């Protein structure tokens, strides 16, 4: 059987790679995704994941140091619009949920947030011990279901997926006129990018004791608190270990996560632990979304999103599509 040479080879099958591949395939390009790891074993499947748009991007110190705030906010804003639309279809794994955003700093009157969906300042009893907390209605993503949805959507658009290692960008460039590098933390080796470093995240998955609202602390770090209900399970977080490559669950961190989350939501105390998940999120002083020529092809890099890859995924995919040379589109 003769297989069509792809217009674009996307490396990586996490949320960034699959979203980019869908965007390109639905524009009419022949897209091949190649990854050594299937989506259900990627870092993306470990994510919570919540879409906060400017709610998260503006006050977060991490967003400002990864990339100019204006660009990150625009990526968030576009992705938030897309995920809000996806929430209308239960088959996507996305829903609009009500929950609290909290901050260890006193953010004052929160005038910047008052026009956002479902905004209501929490009285002291609802703050979970934080100086600032407010209610919001935001898209919440069940990542295993969502990644399966993206795979199906890619297939319906004519995209293909192969599970195999990519030895070098030069090898990839020999297969397609455009290569999109969405390898996350693996880009440190594949792209020779020593600026990439891992942010180790550990989540605890427990039985849902009977609630539907989320809690998300905006302050990144090892002591942050979050919990995201997805049907009969709740994902509790988290940790944020910089330059920590260890993929083994840490029992001490598991106990600390359970304790911190139960302090905010007492119904979580004693919930049965189903699993402990660890993922290495790819961080960088600046998100890398840029192209470079290589051996007669073009490589477009799309990685280094840290802990907000889901929230930037559609905005970054749109900008990758804008970089694909017009000649490839025919």
Descriptive notes:
- The protein has 330 residues and is an alpha/beta fold.
- The chain has helices spanning 15-25, 54-57, 61-66, 69-86, 143-156, 169-173, 187-190, 251-264, 309-323, and strands at residues 8-11, 31-35, 94-103, 120-121, 132-141, 160-163, 178-181, 197-207, 214-217, 226-230, 233-237, 241-242, 273-283, 288-294, 297-303.
- Strands 3, 4, 5, 8, 9, 10, 11, 12 and 13 form a nine-stranded mixed sheet that branches.
- Helix 1 (15-25) runs parallel beside helix 5 and helix 4 (69-86) crosses helix 9 (309-323).
- The longest helix is centred in the first third of the chain and has 18 residues, at 69-86.
- The radius of gyration is 20 Å and the shape is globular.
- It starts with 7 loop residues before the first strand and ends in a 7-residue tail after the last helix.
Question: How are helices and strands ordered from N to C?
Answer: EHEHHHEEEHEHEHEEEEEHEEEH
Please report the total strand number as a whole number.
Answer: 15
Q: Any idea what the shape is?
A: globular
Which range best describes the helical content: under 10%, 10-25%, 25-40%, 40-55%, 55-70% or over 70%? 25-40%
Radius of gyration, in angstroms, nearest whole number: 20 Å
Query: Could you name the ranges where pLDDT drops below 50 across 5 or more consecutive residues?
Result: 53-66
- Number of helical segments with 4 or more residues: 9
End-to-end separation in angstroms reads 24 Å
Helix/strand structural class: alpha/beta
**What is the overall pLDDT average?**
89
Please give the largest β-sheet: 9 strands, mixed
Give the DSSP E fraction (strand runs of 2 or more residues).
25-35%
| Multimeric state | single chain
């Amino acid at each position: 059987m003769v297989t069509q040479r792809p217009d674009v080879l996307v490396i990586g099958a996490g949320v960034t790679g699959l979203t980019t591949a869908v965007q390109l395939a639905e524009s009419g390009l022949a897209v091949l995704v190649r990854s050594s790891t299937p989506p259900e074993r990627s870092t993306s499947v470990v994510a919570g994941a919540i879409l906060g748009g400017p709610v998260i991007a503006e006050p977060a110190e991490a967003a400002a140091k990864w990339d100019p705030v204006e660009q990150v906010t625009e990526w968030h804003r576009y992705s938030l619009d897309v995920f809000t639309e996806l929430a209308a279809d239960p088959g996507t794994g996305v829903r609009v949920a009500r929950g609290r955003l909290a901050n260890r700093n006193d953010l004052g009157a929160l005038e910047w947030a008052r026009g956002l969906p479902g905004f209501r300042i929490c009285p002291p009893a609802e703050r979970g011990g934080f100086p600032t907390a407010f209610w919001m209605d935001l898209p919440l993503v069940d990542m295993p279901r969502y990644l399966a949805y993206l795979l199906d959507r890619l297939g319906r658009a004519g995209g293909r997926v192969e599970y195999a290692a990519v030895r070098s960008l030069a090898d990839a460039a020999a297969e397609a006129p455009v290569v999109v590098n969405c390898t996350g933390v693996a880009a440190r080796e594949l792209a020779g990018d020593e600026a990439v470093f891992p942010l180790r995240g550990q989540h605890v998955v427990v039985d849902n004791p009977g609630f539907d609202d989320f809690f998300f602390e905006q302050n990144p770090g090892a002591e942050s608190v979050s919990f995201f209900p997805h049907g009969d399970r709740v994902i509790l977080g988290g940790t944020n270990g910089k330059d920590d490559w260890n993929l083994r669950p840490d029992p001490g961190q598991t106990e600390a996560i359970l304790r911190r989350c139960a302090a905010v939501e007492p119904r979580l105390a004693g919930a049965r632990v189903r699993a402990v998940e660890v993922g290495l999120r790819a961080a960088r002083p600046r998100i890398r979304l840029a192209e470079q020529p290589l051996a007669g092809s073009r490589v477009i890099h799309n990685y280094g999103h840290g802990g907000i890859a889901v929230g930037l995924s559609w905005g970054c995919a749109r900008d990758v599509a804008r970089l694909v040379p017009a000649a490839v589109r025919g």
